[in-house]
Predict the structure.
Amino acid sequence: MAINPFTQLIFDLFLLSAILITLYTCNFYYLAFLSGRRKDPLQTSTIGTPSVTIQLPIYNEKYVAKRLVDAVCNLDYPKDKMRIMILDDSDDDTVKLLGDVVEKYQKQGFHIEHVRRGTRTGYKAGALKYAMETTDTEYVAIFDADFIPPEWFLKRAISHFTKSDIGLIQCRWGHVNENYSAITQAQALSLDFHFLIEQKAKSNSHLFMNFNGTAGIWRSDCIKDAGGWHTATLVEDLDLSYRAQMKGWKCVFLPDVVVDAELPVQMNAAKRQQFRWAKGSIQCAVKLLSDIVVKRTVAFEAKVQAFVQLTRHIVYPLMLIQFLTLPILLAGNVNLYVVSFIPALTIAAYLAMGPGAYIMIIQSMYRQSWKSKVKILPSLLVYNAGMSVNNSVAVFDALFGKKNEFLRTPKYGIITKHDDWRNKAYNLPFTQTTLLEIFFGVYGMVGIFVSIFSNNPVFAPIIGLQTVGFFYIAYMSLSHTRFKRNKSSVAKVLTKSEKMANTIYKLSMAGIIALIVFGVVMSFVGYGESIYPLDRIRGHLDGITGSSDPVAIQVHIAEINQYLAISMEKLDDTKNPVWIFPTESTNFTRIQSDVDNMATTVEKIAAVPKDSSAFNTAMLDVNGRAVLLKQNIMDATPYMYVSYWNIIFSGMWIAAIVGIFAALKRKSSRLKLE
């Protein structure tokens, strides 16, 4: 059956997105294969205890900064071979805290410096670049504020610089608060996939491996030879490691050397971190890919994998395209099954490409403890699906060259489930992205109804997973928002203004939830009144094409007339849902006329013998009309969604939610100024 141009465009977008997502997914499975290949154990050398500078870039981290410095000063390494540089760009209580800690350890004989450069130019990359100007040691170790290096770290990790061309040793991240919440469990599993699959696979081969920004040791000569730290992107670590490997340096990953770190516990902090990683990767793709492609010394496979790694976050916009186009295609009765009309094979394909394969990978990663990790997989799927809006915004920001401040991910010193962060400083408010997440969630609810009422329930779980993800991320973003007067406040008792702000916030949340429920109910009612009648008409037209009994056909026509009348009542005087550029194929007056002519034909042949040529000719005419009418109804269906009144009411609904968001933002801004 022919598809109208609009539906064809939507189908092409859906298909292209599906193909690209499948390719990126298959590449991850290829890396899983590489990571599982046997390789000779990593060799160690007896290089003794060479000089090392430990650089600790810090910005407003008063809850974890001392913990980091204590761990570094507790390293089992000669004091005279270890220089500690605290690169402190803070502008809050962290400055005094670190000053006191540095003074304490200086008295104990440590070569430790509290570096204050007086500016945040270049952010973390700028601080590291500034520090390298006075670094004269052979190696440089880097730790972010939320990491806790074990005392044996330096001796064990540095012994793997067995060859002169090894420029970087990257160690695996551990998770000190993995079991704090479903959010931290999902993040931990995702990071383990990255380290134990991607990093391990690339370290085992000639593929480019990236530095993760912390828990690693650089050879100083490598940093200088690669051009030093650049401040042009939000992921200076990825940028430098790729430039180093283009120069011929090797990067090695140590899966057995684990450095514990604190995962973000606040949803808005986790979203900020994901945003920075996604945008920074695309920025690096724009900056580096052309040089990688023309570099003759880089193997073809390494070029392909570099392209995949740097552009992999493009999957998130592709997920949104699929999510938006799927309900439209289902409403247009477009066949999306893998094989003919067999739903079982369709859902089996999705399961095999997704959860099924991931379970096998988890088994190979965790061995005996794999069952406990599999239980976290649903949370990760929901988390990743919900993050697609946040990360898509980051991708488009990078592609359009929008400049962003380097916003660090706040940490609160959270380790056990009993630790609380809600009344501490650095709490982040929700952003405008939350509004988009709510929109996609409501759209997903409509999509579920469409899949059910269009007799395609097999797609309901697929749409439902992403819908749950959008609502979950939006809800957690809102519920994790706390209003505080300033970022340095540590008082447990809220002021009158803060109490009022939180009261307004709770009322606003209730209003947003009420608007969401209202939107879902109205979408369901609108579907039942505008789209469902057309679905029923198509069903009866299918019944006509499959029948040669005039009496049965007359029953179908009677039902069609009933549903046509319902649909035409919803239209204006033109009786055409295409209100901007109306087409004759979607003119319901003409459709009604064709149905009337079909009824007349059926009535005439009711008394004609069924074995006569006249009967057969008339039935061919009726079937042809039914097929054409079905196509006309399919053409009209998408435009019933975008009727004049639907657009007005949707605009009012969105404006109400935007208004609430704007009011909350104004209140937050006033608190910051007080």
Notes: DSSP finds 21 helices and eight strands in the chain. The first helix runs from residue 5 to 36.
